[in-house]
């Protein structure tokens, strides 16, 4: 950090990490990628990804400074205006060759890093005169105030970006979700837990964590958000220039749940039939969904009880006390966003939706070896525990209950401790690559083969990998 000419704390532009990672990648200059061994190709991929994150962090810092210089009180006096741009975002977008939305994410992350630098600079400046209790120093100068809970988290988030644990896009998800939330310890703990789980995840998976933190931090605001979503629901039908017709639907998560459940169940049924006869159905999953939707509408024209022909259900779940009070947040099978207790309470009265209330009375679920196939009740219990595919988090409608210790080879029982919910692709991959699975304290753990991880460190799977309320 340094003091700018106008008295504003400067931002530290450090390129050590970029130099180091660039040198590692450039050492491979001229290599034939086609002939590169698998392990070396993956190391090169990691190296190039680090360089990309290094450059993103530096671009975010530059973008933040461009924004600061463009934010002039007098119209037309800012940097962006003087260069012929309507905003700093447009100037940055032209420089990167990307979109304005991408530029906004760079600005948000750059602002976060600049804020962290400013706090660190003030802290260093106050160390000599301010004691741990705050107040004024011997010269009577004001002490640096203690950061708020979310202020401390913003520091954690900035550190995670600087240490390349998460990227600029993920950081922008966090900063956007924090706006307007209560600045209390509970909010900070939720977001800190989400941040801890984020390294190594895709942006889609990080978004799920951020949505959970946002919903649990302020359930009332989340319910108000759902009301706005409900008012914004719509379906449009448009003729395209090539003669095709495009349908676009914007639905609330609760309204979309039965639509998604029917489409997913239909695709799963069709793919299962195709495995038994590979030449029976050449359609892609996208074409299958289109046909299912069309068939449903044709059936509805001539029947008062429309059905897809595929048996499926929608399951909603939440804590019993929250359901009774109409407070808190729950979830719907196969849907990414949390849903407010009020919406789930209304859904629980729908005969087409099965409410699963945690903590309530349940039927016997452990059948030992009295039967080979898992019962519907056991499957629901596995959905409760795993949340979908315990490996890739695919929705429950894509998954089947599998024996961890095989029924015939290992005489494995048909009970919950020996069951796991997995989509067919992940199930085959686990067996093909030699992974082991164990369930301890209702948590699924995948144990990699030594060829992948010599230490065979277990990896948490299922709902526990993503659930902030666990």
**Large-scale geometry:** globular
Number of helices: 16
Strand order of the largest sheet: 5-4-3-6
The radius of gyration computed from the alpha-carbon positions, rounded to a whole number of angstroms, is: 27 Å
**Low-pLDDT ranges:** 1-5, 127-140, 306-311, 359-371
Structural class by helix and strand composition: alpha+beta
Estimated share of beta-strand residues = 5-15%
How many extended strands?
A: 11
Terminal CA distance reads 40 Å
What level of helicity do the residues show?
Answer: 40-55%
Order of helices and strands: HHHHHHHHHHEEHHEHEEHEHEEHEEE
| Biggest sheet character | 4 strands, mixed
User: Averaged pLDDT, please?
Assistant: 80
Keywords, separated by commas or semicolons:
disordered N terminus, alpha+beta, 11% strand, single chain, 470 residues, 3-stranded antiparallel beta sheet
A few lines on this structure:
The chain has 470 residues and is α+β, with helices and mostly antiparallel strands.
3D structure, described in words:
The structure is a single chain. The protein has 16 helices and 11 strands. The protein has 470 residues and is of the alpha+beta class. The strands form 4 sheets. Strands 5-4-3-6 form a 4-stranded mixed beta sheet. A 3-stranded antiparallel beta sheet has the order 9-10-11, with no helix packed on it. Strand 4 (329-332) and strand 5 (339-340) form a beta hairpin. The radius of gyration is 27 Å and the shape is globular.
């Amino acid at each position: 950090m340094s003091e700018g000419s106008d008295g504003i704390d400067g931002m530290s532009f450090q390129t050590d990490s970029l130099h180091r990672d660039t040198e590692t990648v450039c050492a491979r200059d001229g290599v034939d990628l086609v002939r590169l061994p698998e392990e070396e190709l993956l190391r090169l991929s990691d190296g190039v990804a680090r360089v990309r994150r290094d450059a993103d962090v530096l671009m975010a810092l530059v973008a933040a400074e461009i924004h600061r210089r463009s934010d002039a009180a007098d119209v037309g006096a800012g940097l962006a205006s003087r260069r012929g741009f309507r905003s700093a975002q447009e100037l940055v977008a032209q420089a990167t060759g990307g979109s304005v939305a991408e530029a906004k994410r760079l600005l948000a992350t750059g602002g976060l890093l600049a804020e962290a630098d400013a706090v660190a600079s003030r802290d260093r400046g106050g160390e000599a005169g301010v004691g741990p209790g705050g107040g004024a120093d011997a010269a009577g100068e004001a002490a640096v105030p203690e950061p708020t809970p979310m202020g401390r988290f913003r520091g954690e988030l900035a550190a995670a970006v600087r240490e390349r644990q998460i990227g600029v896009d993920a950081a922008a998800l966090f900063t956007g979700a924090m706006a307007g939330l209560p600045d209390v310890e509970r909010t900070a703990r939720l977001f800190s837990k989400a941040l801890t789980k984020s390294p190594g995840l895709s942006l889609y998976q990080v978004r799920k964590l951020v949505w959970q933190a946002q919903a649990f931090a302020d359930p009332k605001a989340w319910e108000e958000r759902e009301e706005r979503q409900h008012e914004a629901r719509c379906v449009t039908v448009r003729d395209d220039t090539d003669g095709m017709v495009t349908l676009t639907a914007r639905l609330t998560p609760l309204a979309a749940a039965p639509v998604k459940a029917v489409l997913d169940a239909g695709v799963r049924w069709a793919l299962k039939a195709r495995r038994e006869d590979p030449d029976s159905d050449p359609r892609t999953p996208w074409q299958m969904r289109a046909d299912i939707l069309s068939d449903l509408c044709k059936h509805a024209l001539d029947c008062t009880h429309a059905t897809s022909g595929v048996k499926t259900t929608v399951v909603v779940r939440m804590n019993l006390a929250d359901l009774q009070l109409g407070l808190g947040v729950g979830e719907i099978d196969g849907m990414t966003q949390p849903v407010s207790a009020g919406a789930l309470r209304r859904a629980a009265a729908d005969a087409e939706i099965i409410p699963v209330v945690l903590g309530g009375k349940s039927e016997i679920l452990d059948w030992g070896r009295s039967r080979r196939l898992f019962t519907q009740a056991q499957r629901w219990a596995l959905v409760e525990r795993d949340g979908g595919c315990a490996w890739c988090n695919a929705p429950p409608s894509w998954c089947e209950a599998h024996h961890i210790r095989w029924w015939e080879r290992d005489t494995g029982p048909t009970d919950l401790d020996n069951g796991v919910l997995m989509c067919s692709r992940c199930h085959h991959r686990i067996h093909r690559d030699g992974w082991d699975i164990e369930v301890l304290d209702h948590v699924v753990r995948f144990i990699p083969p030594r060829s992948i991880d010599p230490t065979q460190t277990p990896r948490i799977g299922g709902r526990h990998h993503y659930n902030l309320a666990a």
